[in-house]
Amino acid sequence: MRIALLQLRTPATQAAALAHIEPLVREAAAAGAQLIATPEATNILQRNRAMLMPALRSAEDDVVVAGLCGLARELGVWVLIGSVLVRREDGKAVNRSLLVAPDGAVTASYDKIHMFDVDLPTGERIRESSAYEPGDRLVIAEAAGARLGLTICYDLRFPAVFQALGRAGAEVVPIPSAFTAPTGEAHWEVLLRARAIEIGAFVLAPAQGGVHEDGRRTYGHSMVVGPWGEVLAHLPGDAPGVLLADLDLAAVGKARAAIPALANARAFVGP
Predict the structure, then answer these.
(1) H or E stretch at 217
(2) Total-model pTM
(3) Which tens digits make up the pLDDT trace of 76-123?
(4) Fewer CB within 10 Å: C terminus or N terminus of the chain?
(5) Angle, to 10 degrees, between the axis of helix 63-75 and the axis of helix 14-30?
(6) Helix or strand run (H / E) with residue 225
């Protein structure tokens, strides 16, 4: 199974974001990718909330979603839109992952559960919960012959999410992200490898990278990690680009047989 991760530097408008991503999708498809995964906030990155919120549309009306559905259909590939910032049916904003089939239809969606509410050592204060409604359910979806367990960015720091996806049979866990540069430098690789190891699954981590139009800086370093914790592919630095990897799904069963942590887990009473 050949996959491609797209590393982006998403602009501050949806139209510019689609123009940024389309040539990378075409490059990935031309290289034989069956599944193409994009990072968090594929459609827009704008930290000025007064400018961001009026710009958000429903997923059905978002030009990036429409464009990527069209590309999936034209190129005959699966596209995991790592996340788009959109308005829900009730008018509330959500951070949503969408899985698009080769016929252009959206076959699964997942709303980010864990909100990034932090005060960084740099002095930056981030409160995702002030803008977005968190999701409340995990999602497993089939794509290109693999069982995907959907997550988004900050979910990476919550092992219970991955334990639940592993027990539900996820073989591949995408973690589309827009990690800040300081936290990415400190924690990105070690957390990705830990999540892969503890459930014996492939981890796909397409990332935002570089200095964006709104002034934020994201870490980049998109990465594919195998079920044994080995880094299979890595896009060093923060420049936009395409990262390819070939996944042997049989490696999932081998890793879980060698270290049967999911099978050996026991219920317990907390302190």
Answers:
(1) strand 217-219
(2) 0.96
(3) 999 999 999 999 888 889 999 999 999 999 999 999 999 988 787 777
(4) C
(5) 20
(6) strand 223-225
Element housing 65 (H / E): helix 63-75
Which residues does the annotation mark as catalytic? Answer: 40, 112, 153
Amino acid at 38: T
Q: DSSP characters for 153-175?
A: GGGGG-HHHHHHHHHTT-SEEE-
pLDDT at position 28 over 80: yes
- Distance of CA 55 to CAs 13, 45, 93, 168, Å? 8, 11, 11, 36
Fold classified for 2-264: Nitrilase/N-carbamoyl-D-aminoacid amidohydrolase (3.60.110)
Q: Is 76 left (phi over 0), alpha (psi -120 to 50) or beta?
A: left
Q: Tell me the β-bridge partners of 244.
A: 4
